[in-house]
Amino acid sequence: MTRASLPLRRPAAAPHHAAPAAASADVIDVRSLDFFYGAKQALEHITIRIRPNIVTAFIGPSGCGKSTFLRTLNRMNDIIPGARVAGQVMIDGRNIYAPGVDVVALRQRVGMVFQKSNPFPKSIFENVAYGLRVNGLAKSRPELEARVEQSLRQAAIWDEVKDRLHESALALSGGQQQRLCIARALAVRPAILLMDEPASALDPIATQRIEELIYQLKTDYTIVIVTHNMQQAARVSDTTAFFWLGRLVEYGPTEKLFTNPSEKLTEDYVTGRFG
Amino acid sequence: MPDRPVRHFEGELEGLKVRLLEMGGLAEDRLQAAVEALVSRDLASLDRVLAGDDPINRLHIEIDSRCCRLLALHQPMAVDLRAIVSAVKINTDLERVGDLAVNIAEAARRYLRHPPVKELIDIPRMARLAQTMLRDALDAYVQRDTAAAERVLREDDELDGLKTQVFRELLTYMLQDPRTIEPALDLILISRHLERIGDHATNVAEDVIFMVSARDVRHHTGEAQ
Q1: Does B72 contact A234 at a Cβ distance shorter than 8 Å?
Q2: Which chain A residues contact residue B7 at CB under 8 A?
Q3: Which of A31, A35, B101, B210 could form a disulfide with B30 if both were Cys (CB 3.0 to 4.6 A apart)?
Q4: Do A234 and B5 touch (CB under 8 A)?
């Protein structure tokens, strides 16, 4: 595969929300994925296909591999010494582990929000503008400002910060910082947003805001969320994947998984009998 | 921006409410059609009532499945929890009202094989009252109005009284002329079905009171409050 044929290179000036694929096609298509931390196998033969513009939740007990798997979707595990991947992760029809893939462009297309909000020690504005600047995604100051505002609006935080854009992001509350990080991820216009326990450090009201935000964002993005909070997975997701000991036990519509799971193991987990 | 974001769960609750009202409307229409057909001795209309139970049955299943989904996926608390538990029960009551309308149509069909026992006065009155109770109970549900729900509970006594009156009156007809026994029994049965519809409307009203104020007034508990 030549580099030129990869869609994961930095797009010149892709129109906003250019459809990643036809509405029915799978945007993420993982085939027999194995993952190792040194000798330890953390994921075994994961095969999963994720449709665009839905929220998919990964659930399972600690150490089940759900976060590891999430991180394989934008190669965040690459930096871990001894980490090794086998199998394929197809995003928009291309294997992201193929030689020559531009990982920076990949992570622009597949954004990520972490458990602990991690704003840069800069102003609110600069936090969102940063990715636009380094990627050369805004041609002029007005364009930059417009995209910062748009991202902050999409992350449902604009009204709270519009009068103090140039104050430090670190002065924001935890919930606001997390929404700022979501705005920062959205600024570079990803197609897919990966969220690793995005609300686990937040109080119930801030959590509810994030959950509603996730619900709204799915019209424009494909969202994959890892959560140890089963109820949260039930509330926000359309499909749910249950992981156990590095294996994908069950994957299907969230309603089915939480009202009538197919696997005994899933039933035991969602009813709180183990895990 | 409001203090808390609008939860999309609110939209789900609204959808549930709309479905229950649709079901209530269907049940009410069928009750009215059955009694009107009885009074006007219209067999064709009775047949339509007998044939048309499907939409209610479909809604019955759909509403239960919505409630189940909302309980599983949203873990509702306090008033939201009571709203869904009440919806499950109201759903069952409305489905029973639909069934009773069918039972009325069946009895009416048998009744119309005979010459009229008498002019029908109290049965249409009972039907109007039962229908009003049902409508008022559903309005109370929509408005979350416990005072309106309590009025429905009081109306049930009147309906019970009418049923007793119908029975006593028809008894005199049967004693005078044994040929009226068969049709008169069907009229008694119809009055019994109408009285049961009032009981279901009462149940709906009780569920509204529980949903709004967490007060359980069933079986005359909590009435004094």
Answers
A1: yes
A2: 208, 212
A3: B101
A4: no
Cβ-Cβ contacts under 8 Å, B9 against chain A: 235
Number of domains in chain B: 1
Q: Taking a contact as any Cβ pair under 8 Å apart, which residues of chain B between 37 and 76 contact chain A? A: 68-69, 72-75
Q: Is B54 exposed, middle or buried (0-12, 13-18, 19+ CB in 10 A)?
A: exposed
A255/B4 touch (CB, cutoff 8 Å), yes or no: no
Q: Taking 60 as the threshold, does the pLDDT of residue A9 lie above it?
A: no
* Residue A159 predicted with pLDDT over 60: yes
Give the pLDDT score at A214: 95
- Tell me the per-residue pLDDT of A186-222, one tens digit each, with 9 for 90 and over: 999 999 999 999 999 888 888 999 999 999 999 999 9
Q: In what order do the strands lie in the sheet with A40-50?
A: A40-50, A28-37, A83-91, A94-95
Tell me, yes or no, if A215 comes closer than 8 A to chain B by beta carbon: yes
Tell me the whole-structure pTM to 2 decimals: 0.85
Residue A66 per-residue DSSP state: H
Determine which of B67, B69, B70, B81 to mutate to test the interface with A (most A C-beta atoms within 10 Å): B69
Tokens of A33: 């994925």
**Axis-axis angle for helices A124-134, A141-154 (nearest 10):** 120
Q: Do B8 and A215 touch (CB under 8 A)?
A: yes
B5 interfacial to chain A (CB closer than 8 Å): yes
Where do runs of H (alpha helix) occur along A87-173?
103-109, 124-134, 141-154, 158-161
State yes or no: ipTM above 0.85: no
Q: Does a structural domain hold residue B174?
A: yes
Q: Which residue of A has its CA nearest to B69?
A: A255
Q: What is the CATH number of the domain that holds B130?
A: 1.20.58.220
The answer as to whether B1 is a domain residue is no
- Per-domain boundaries in chain A: 25-270
**Interchain contact, A208 vs B8, CB within 8 Å:** no
Q: Which domain holds residue B74?
A: 8-220
Q: What is the pLDDT of residue B8?
A: 87
In the DSSP assignment, the letter for residue A5 is: G
